[in-house]
Structures are given as C-alpha cells and as structure tokens.
Amino acid sequence: MGTVMKTIILAAGYGTRLSPLSDYLPKPLIPILGRPLLWHILRKLRGCGITEAGVNIHHHADQVRQFLQDEDFGINITVSYESDILGVAGGIGAFREFLKHEEFFMIHNGDILSTIPIDQMAAAYQKKRSLITMVLHDYPPYNNVSLAADGTICDIRDTLKPLSWVKKLAYTGLAFMDAGMLPLIPEGPGDLIPLCLEIIRKGAHRIDAIIADGYEWRDVGTVKSYFEVHRDILCRKKPLIAEVVIPPDGIYIEEDTLVADGVQFKGFASVGKRCILRKKSSLENAILWDDVIIEEGVNIKNSIVGRAFQANAE
C-alpha cells in the first residue's frame, strides 16, 4: 500500500516559544533557507508519496491560507480553520469529514524537520495496525514516553508511573492512527495526551511504538532551535531539508539580494529575498528575513533579523 495515506499537519498553534518571530509570521511560515517551514514539510511528504494532506490553522490564519493557495505542492490540501484553538485531539477531530473513508492516517507536527523516512515508518505501521502508533527516537531532553517490554507505550510524561517500563524515548512528532481513533475523540477542544493515557489505563487498545534510530531530527519550535537548525544545515551539512541547494561555504543568499563590496561573512548566514547589505556591514551566524536592510558598518552576530525586529539567538 506504500505511503498513500492522508496526512494531518498540525499547524494551528500560536508559536509562543518563537516570539518575537511569531508575532510577525505564523510558525509554519518562518523561513528556512528562503522557504517556509511548511513548504519543506509538504515537499518531503510529496516525495514520500503523500497526495492528500489536511492543515489546521489559527494564528495568522490568513497568511497560511494565502501561502497554501499560492503554492503548488503536488498535494491536494484541505484546510481546517479553527476560530478558537482546538488542541491536538480537537484539531484531528475537526478533520472527520476529510478522513471519513480512510482506514488509517498519519499525523505530522508542523514544527519539526527530520530525515526519518516516512515511507519506511508507514510500512512498519501497516504491519502493526494498532489504534495509535507513535514514532519515537532517543533524544534525552524529551525522553518522556515509557515503553513496556512488549514494545507498547505504557506511560507518557510520567503520569501513570507503571512499574514495568523498560525504556524511555522521545516522540518525534510523527504518528499513525487507525480510523477507530476518531470516535474516541470528543467534539470540540481537547488534548491528545489525556486520551492516550485513558486508552493505556483501560487496556482495550494498543498504543505501539516504532523506533527511528540513526536519523537527524530537529524541533523548530523555539528561537534557539530555529537558529540552530540553520547551523545544522549550513555548517554541519545535516540533510534536514530537500530541494534547496546548500552552499558549501555556509552562506545562503537569495539571488535578488544586493550585497555591496566589502561585506564580510563569518560562520553561517541565511539571507532572504530583496535584502540589502550595505558596504562595510558584516554577518556572523545570522538569519535575515525578506526585505531587510543592513546599513553601512552595521555588524549582525548570532541574531535573527526581520524588518521590524532583531532577536538574539544566544
């Protein structure tokens, strides 16, 4: 069956951990080497055979909707606008009509990039076909999903405190769900974690894990992690994005940017569209969004700069 399954991209959050960046752009549209985060996610999905995706939106919803209308991703996209944020469970539940003929579907967080091969994960899931299968990996800062000896998930966030867990891993932001999960999601707002914990308590259904070892992964949900993903791509050459040529010198500059003679670069830089770098300015470990002007002699270091803000990323 391959990976021909519908996918829900969760992209409605306020992105408060990304402030002040998210004051100007919704998290799905923050640029990574000249392309919005959501662009990179959708390109990866298309490359894995996904042909239909649902995207929930709320914060700066008009910007996200316009972006999805203007771009052709080779994927049919259904948008779910949330006038009030519904939470993860409520956001999934709002796609009932979109999913009504599906036997199963995939969930993809809207703030992650990874080299995890979705087609392989989907194939592994289809062998299990449990109610929920979460893709996990070993990432110590977030290792809060407990596994039992049989490979099932027996706790999340140390809530149930079972005596029999054998390992703790982190959720990657990728999961697969059987359509039988939809009737268990109440109408309206709701979080997914309490539902999962209740399923574990009752023991009527399995919540399984697929362990993804040896892949690159990055959460892009904070200012620091957004900054570091650029270092990962430009300096460490981690293949977290596709279809964008990574410059060997770690300096990515859009073609319509004007760079005066004598501008100095150090470390890494990502410079957006229609920027102007005047003479004797310098960039060191810097991210410039579109339409930014760096005046003569100004030095930008360890910062993210938009037209109306400068955020220090240290």
Structure description:
The protein has 314 residues and is of the alpha/beta class. The chain folds into 2 domains: 7-219, Alpha-Beta Complex (Spore Coat Polysaccharide Biosynthesis Protein SpsA, Chain A); 249-312. It contains 8 helices and 21 strands. The chain has helices at residues 21-24, 37-47, 61-70, 87-93, 96-99, 118-128, 192-202, 223-234; strands at residues 7-10, 31-32, 35-36, 52-57, 76-81, 104-109, 112-114, 132-137, 145-147, 153-156, 167-178, 207-211, 217-219, 251-253, 258-259, 264-271, 276-277, 282-288, 293-294, 299-305, 310-312. A hairpin with a 2-residue loop joins β2 and β3 (35-36). The radius of gyration is 21 Å and the shape is elongated.
CATH classification class of the largest domain: Alpha Beta
Low-confidence segments, ≥5 residues, pLDDT <50? Answer: none
| C-alpha geometry | elongated
- What is the CATH architecture annotation of the largest domain? Alpha-Beta Complex
- The end-to-end distance, rounded to whole angstroms, is 46 Å
Helix content: 10-25%
Strand content: 25-35%
The name of the CATH topology of the largest domain is: Spore Coat Polysaccharide Biosynthesis Protein SpsA, Chain A
The H-and-E topology, N to C, reads as EHEEHEHEHHEEHEEEEHEEHEEEEEEEE
In CATH terms, the superfamily of the largest domain is: Spore Coat Polysaccharide Biosynthesis Protein SpsA, Chain A
- Total number of strands: 21
Q: Number of helix segments? A: 8
